[in-house]
Amino acid sequence: MCKRGVPFDGVTVNTVLVGLCRSGLVDEAARLTEMLVGGRGIGSLDVVGWNALIDGYCKVQDMAAALAVAERMRKQGVPLDVVRYNSLVAGFCHSGDASAAWDVVEAMKADGVEPNVVTYTGFIGEYCKRKGIEEAFNLYEGMVRLGVLPDVVTLSALVDGLCRDGRFSEAYALFREMDNIGAPPNHVTYCTLID
Questions:
Q1: What is the C-alpha to C-alpha distance for residues 153 and 119, in angstroms, rounded to an integer?
Q2: What DSSP character marks residue 193?
Q3: Which partner for 171 in 86, 162, 179, 194 could form a disulfide, CB atoms 3.0-4.6 Å apart?
Q4: For the chain, which domains are there?
C-alpha cells in the first residue's frame, strides 16, 4: 500500500490490528499503533482498534498493558463499553485475579455501564474451573435476582462445574432444566456431560 501511495485508513489499520492480536502478536500490534498514530498514518485509533489491543492484551494475560490501553482510550475521549469491560473482567478472571476483576466491575458501574450476562458468566466459568462451585451458584443466583438472565454459556459453565465437583446427578438435573430456563443445551453442554 505504501509503495503505491495508498494511504492507511481506519478500516485497514483495524483489520491489521485485529489480525495481529488474534494471532497473539499484541506487542507487534502496539508497535504498529505507535508508528501509525505517531504521525505516519492516522490521527488516532477508533474504538475498534483500541478494543483489539485491550482484548489482545487480555488474551495473553498482560493485564497491566490492557489497563494502560484502557486508560489511554479514556484520555483520548473514547469511553469503554460493556464489551471492553467484559474483556478486562475475563482477562483478570483467567489470570486468577478475581479481586481485580471485581474492581473492574465496580469501575464499570461507576461509569454507568451495567454488567450483563457475559460479565457474570466470566466469573462463573472461572469459579467452576477452580472448583468454586458454591461461589459460582451464589453469583448465578445474585445475577438472576438482579434481572440478568442466564444464557447457554452460563448454564453450561455450571453443568461443567458440577461435573468437575463430582455432582453428576445435579449436573444432569440442571442439563434437563435448561430448556425450561430458556437456554437449551448446545454441543458444549452435551460434550461436558459425555466427557
A1: 12
A2: H
A3: 162
A4: 1-94 (no CATH), 116-195 (1.25.40.10)
